[in-house]
């Protein structure tokens, strides 16, 4: 997800109802007025016909700490889950996408490459590679039936897509099996026809059929109701190109050569024992990662199998590095980033922006600042143009110092059918979705 939507930040917890049920006092009225203004500035006053009908936190309940944390609705008996797919307009049909098939994977790739997330100014569009899609969609225990497409019956053209993959997510002390929902896309020519709610209901039905009742997802837009709202930060690695394509601007009183010098990085990494992660590192990485993630309110519950899938390096998809102690051969630190290029729309000289996205990073010995500087150095060696990171986990401790600049959009995190009492700070979140 890129910063696709400008917005002014996380919703504050604004008490919006009168707990005594009495006539509002003068001070309540003043508060209501303030609340109304806050809601308006955040877009919370908008009606959401679909989302208001779903088991998700509702804006009107923001700040109501009397509601219990946990599932909003109890599971229904499996025999009561609808057996047939939802109705589509008659021209269209559902398909289950076999992402193993090269032909199918290419169709999905093309739909997304032409119709998926763009920035606000329509200058860049995500360009997830086929290898990336295969990695993202086939984690341990994945369900083929959760890779859902919509075709035009007559031409067989793929025009919409949505996916889920299973994940165990810990919320405080509870480990909840969820679907991570991603890659919701409707062809540009079919927008605003209420197809998205049907896609979401169909993926929900197929998730329910596996006896799973919760989901996690992110979006650039505000809908009911974010558990937290994060910001992307960007570290220029190739400032000249970033300026040429309009990704960044030359700062006031800055020349190109001073800017290049500002972002220059050392040729090689400095952390002793810093090397690419290998299969034999999986147990140690799992151990330090699980220990690190245990401090966040919401975080994945990774097994060794999950770590092997999500963190073992795959060329052009996911890069991971460890620091191994020369004396004890212990793995003390770990960092990772995934590869997600964006197409540059309408530039004569450049067609692709090569971006690395910070994934999971853990330090037990090396200062995080130094480890992340080494991550920047290897990303530069691999010819990435920019290194992006959200302000989640402990990332805010290195962003400014390592010359990341704030992006102009937010990424909102959501849970489906799971209520969290308070809006979280980004630093309380230990989850990165792709
Ligand atoms: C238990 C298991 C549960 C599993 C499900 C968990 C929930 C998963 C939820 C999905 C997680 C996805 C995670 C990602 O992939 S986020 C990436 C989303 N994709 C893009 O931004 C790509 C470019 N855009 C498009 O393809 C379309 O604009 C999409 C498909 C996004 C909407 O199509 P369209 O523009 O033609 O609109 P419509 O007329 O059909 O429908 C309008 C309704 O849809 C609501 N809407 C719009 N965008 C989103 C959005 N990003 N998340 C949730 N809802 C969204 C909208 O508020 C409105 O409802 P309401 O405001 O009136 O109520």
UniProtKB/TrEMBL annotation:
PROSITE patterns found in the cross-reference section: NMT_1, NMT_2
Keywords: Acyltransferase, Transferase
Native organism: Gossypium australe
GO cellular component, one term: cytoplasm
Keyword Transferase among UniProt keywords: yes
Polar residues biased stretches: 16-25
Entry GO MF terms: glycylpeptide N-tetradecanoyltransferase activity
Protein name: Glycylpeptide N-tetradecanoyltransferase
